[in-house]
Amino acid sequence: MTRFGRAVVAHGQTFEVREYPVPDPAPHAMVLRQELAGICGTDLHMWQNGIQGEMALGHENVGIIEALGKEVTKDAVGNPLREGDRVIFQPGTPHGAYGFKTNPDVAPHFTGGFGEYMYLAYPDTCVLKTNLPSEVAVLTEPFTVGVHAVMRGRVQLGDTVVVQGSGAIGLVTLVCARMSGAAKIIVVGGPAKRLELARRMGADVTIDVEEIRTPEDRRELVLAETPQKGGAHVVFECAGFLSAIPEGLAYVRRDGAFVEVGNFVDMGPVSLNVNQLMMRRNMRVEAIWGSQGDHFIRGLPLLERNEYPFADMVSHVLPLEDIGKGFEALNGTYRLGDEVVIKIVVQGGE
Questions:
Q1: pLDDT tens readout for residues 47-81
Q2: 167, 194 in Cβ contact below 8 A?
Q3: pLDDT at 1
């Protein structure tokens, strides 16, 4: 008997839950029963721009292996795989990306994370088995962004670091910077509940953008916390707002580094004074694009140590039919009802 499962289809700024037949896996593929899928800033920016056509979104996932193709026996590091194992996976592959595929009405349908099932069909998909609880495992993909960013930023022992943004990417970048030896970490973000969690995750100083309203005032506070008030060794822009870029560049000390992390979707150009903000600081400017398999292989064991309150990042778990409420909350006030949101995840099947 054919099984059916539900999946979210996005179009423009609307969402629809549809039912599709669940495919049997090809020899090189596997079917996951989805547990949780995170709403990423990339998903949000695409939605803000208006999604063209119909798309199966969702690329931050954890699931249980429902069925394995006969050729699939091990994960990316050689651990044996069996039905019933919990796994995470890298959404980007050399053959395509999960969570960004159009025409979801065409089989195999379950190519995005916002659904009850996920069909992993691309060759060379980096799949990793884990025993983490699902509410932590779902953070693997964003955690690898933090891994990638900090590796590119070349954080050294004793550095002073600024992280712009206190959402999921900002929080995991903060943790990775701390793991890499940063001596002092300043987080510029908000709302206050997010900053409270940032302090629990290792931030030494937090600056609330809802209280300190101007870039000039925030810069004064940031520089006061840096060596000789000269600026940070490394600044990570994780907020995803264009206005944060010139503001963050102004936080960097001479010979320091600025790493752009938050703009994975084209949100347009930004105006800045290259001479004043960049050249006169003799700075290094980096930008990352997604995460590679190596970042997953490096990052998952660090996440599995579970030494930080990662589970507390997941503030809200929504059913598939309420996914629109999650996007709306992340689009403005960062509040769902009266509660501040940190990381919103969508529940797959039971």
A1: 999 999 999 999 999 999 999 999 999 999 999 99
A2: yes
A3: 64
Specify whether the CB–CB gap between 229 and 219 falls below 8 A.
Answer: no
Pairing of β 232-237 and β 160-164: parallel
Torsion from C-alpha of 182, 260, 58, 165, nearest 10 degrees? 60
Q: Which CATH class is domain 4-132+306-347?
A: alpha beta
Residue range 142-287 in CATH 3.40.50.720: yes
Instruction: Give one DSSP letter per residue of 1-65, joined into a string.
Output: ---EEEEEEEEETEEEEEEEEPPPPPTT-EEEEEEEEE--HHHHHHHHH-EEEEEEE--EEEEEE
| pTM > 0.90 | yes
Q: Which residues make up the CATH 3.40.50.720 domain(s) of the chain?
A: 142-287
Distance from C-alpha of 103 to C-alpha of 109, rounded to nearest angstrom: 8
